[in-house]
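Hello forum,

I keep getting stuck at the same step: I have a sequence, I want structure tokens, and every attempt I make locally crashes halfway through. Rather than fight my setup again tonight, could one of you with a working pipeline run this one for me? It's a single chain of 309 residues.
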Amino acid sequence: MIELKFVSSIAERDIDLLVVEELSVNEEFREWFAARVAGEPSYKSNLGTWHSLSDVLLGESDIVFLFEALSGARSAVLIENKIGAPPQPAQGARYTLRGEKGIQDGYWETFKTCVIAPQKYLLSSKHTESYEVEISYEELLAFFQSRGPREQRYRYKAKILLEGIEQNRRGYQPEYSEPMTNFVREYFAFCSTDHQFLRMQEAKPRPAGSTWIMFHPARLPNGVDLVHQLTAGFVKAFFNGRIDDLDAITGKYASVLPPTASIESAGKSVAIVIPVAKIDPINVSFSEQQESVSQALSGLSRLASLLSD
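Reply #2:
Ran it on my machine without issues. Output:
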């Protein structure tokens, strides 16, 4: 008899929706998850769960779980889910920034950032982002397996998670986007003419959501990254892990930056930010946006020159 596969593959979105469902309808899971994040019982009542919650400037949280804590505080957990895809630069820092913005906007009073992923991923060299809490798929699997004898639904959820774990062991196979890949290839060719010194990263196949382009000029100080955030509309210089030096960096560079630039915290890092035109690499051709790319490269060149002095 031919052995049929349970599913052909598991995407991160499949795990997203599994967790969203349980946080939306399962009081026992909400209590367990909140306690696991806090390190002690902390859940009082449910206030809601959202999938793919986006901020126009700070990007997207895969899942946001909001609950009233035993202390009475409105508490949020901002959750990043990974099966095997490498993180985008400063992804963990942006989760912290979105959490802080949620407090400022009055959506919650406290928050934690959390990543869920197979244990192999969490222990791997590609997992370099900083989150306050890490929860492995294996822990989620144990939750559902232990309740499997009680209900078939739990056994089904455990099966999904197990397939996600096995898929990670077999190796991550990203779904590449032809429009994104072609756009970055044309960007690279354009950059290699007048802005070759910026040393844009190699133009490899890309998923649709990989919208940050990195640059590595030779004279850039160690621990500083140059980035063009295509869809957000910014060029940035990240001083990685330098949040304690925010005042010193501001004092050194603020007076020589263009009027539109700002210097701000980015989680545990500091970022010099210059707004540029937003770019749509999927639906609009490179040639139609070449002038916007040229302006962004000029901004990056200015940052590279400034930081290399």
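The two ends are 70 Å apart (CA to CA). If your local run keeps crashing, start a new thread with the error log.
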